[in-house]
């Protein structure tokens, strides 16, 4: 087993008063493979800026500047994170969501629409979520 040691002890990380965390389940549960790098850049910005409830708000222009993303790249990154159930978004409010396995999957607010196919009744959605065949 590898014996860990500090490579640069003079730069040991200190927990600041305003602290954010990255959930280890992203690595442990192989969740990083679900989205490309630009989406994870957005996710990192949101967890670093979010409050204790995972809430933050940024205009698209601000996110684009901070991450060097085009309008299209930002839209794709945000959509990918929403489709995987990592974030919820109601402009300009973002919420980083819990990573519990049973909760991962698309989250859309009442005002948003998914373009992933035809509309379905709540009964059909619940049936599918509870393990029924479609």
Summary keywords:
3 strands; three-stranded antiparallel β-sheet; 34% helix; 134 residues; mainly alpha; 5 helices; Arc Repressor Mutant, subunit A
In short:
This protein has helices spanning 25-28, 37-49, 60-67, 71-83, 122-129, and strands spanning 55-57, 87-90, 93-96. It has 134 residues and is mainly alpha-helical.
Folded structure, characterized:
The protein has helices at residues 25-28, 37-49, 60-67, 71-83, 122-129; strands spanning 55-57, 87-90, 93-96. Strands 1-3-2 form a 3-stranded antiparallel beta sheet. Helix 2 packs across helix 4 (71-83). The chain has a domain at 27-109: Winged helix-like DNA-binding domain superfamily/Winged helix DNA-binding domain (Arc Repressor Mutant, subunit A). It is globular and about 55 Å long. A hairpin with a 2-residue loop joins strand 2 (87-90) and strand 3 (93-96). Mean pLDDT is 83; it is low at 109-117. By secondary structure, the chain is mainly alpha-helical.
